[in-house]
Amino acid sequence: MSEDGQEGDPVEIWCAGEEWCAVTATASLIGKKWHPVIVDRLLTNGPLGFNALKEAVDGISSKVLSDSLEDLEERGIVTREVISEKPFRVEYDLTERGRDLGPVIDAMRTWGKAHLVPADERES
Amino acid sequence: MSEDGQEGDPVEIWCAGEEWCAVTATASLIGKKWHPVIVDRLLTNGPLGFNALKEAVDGISSKVLSDSLEDLEERGIVTREVISEKPFRVEYDLTERGRDLGPVIDAMRTWGKAHLVPADERES
DNA sequence: CGGCATCCACATGGATACTG
DNA sequence: CAGTATCCATGTGGATGCCG
Fold first, then answer.
1. Positions of strand C less than 7 angstroms from a protein CB
2. How high is the pLDDT of residue A6?
3. A61 to A67, B40, B122: CA distances (angstroms)
4. Closest CA to B54 of B92, B28, B94
């Protein structure tokens, strides 16, 4: 910040070609506490309204969900579409780029299920 | 915290069986700014000493590296072995569990390389 | 070499309440 | 329904310096 043309932790233009850079940048995306859950939810339950998504994520406050969705929008992961004005309805959905996170989420889930033991069958 | 037998953001016993939980827990691990890089570095460059690792990660301060390694140790991702006492040497390496993060890192890298454009060839 | 001790700045998440 | 507005606690990273 206050350096060049970048603002904060910007869109999707961080790094050039270095391998680990793509990794870190991706980490800064799915490392946010709720981001992976939101993406997972949208992957599974299709397009969702704000409160429906809030229900699906379960445990998130509206402020944080709002913040997260804004972040995900800016990064081109989710889309926000206003469905109707009078009974005000919107729908959040994943972009192509967002759907491409599927394998990442899945790898994470696989690892988690393999190594995060359920609190009672700890071996060694 | 201050609930039951857990302390802070503990070892590896968060969630029981729910799918998204494994995802979130994994995110809390690889979401720390330097964790994925450290793991990646150790995956690539084999066992490393503290300063060698610091070099390899490039840009991290000793305090943060120290914190990160402690965290990763507690979670059973890396091992710390004292090689020699007199010229004091240690070596950090990945555990089996740590190596299993390979696919996750890889999925992240793949996504990153596909969607994080290098700041000059943005094609909307 | 391999850290730890401080201190600090800022990001992130959360609770609660209120609005169009 | 779909958020915004506050305010606050904590987490997380970073700079610098010192130590065994």
1. 1-7, 11-17, 20
2. 33
3. 10, 34, 34
4. B92
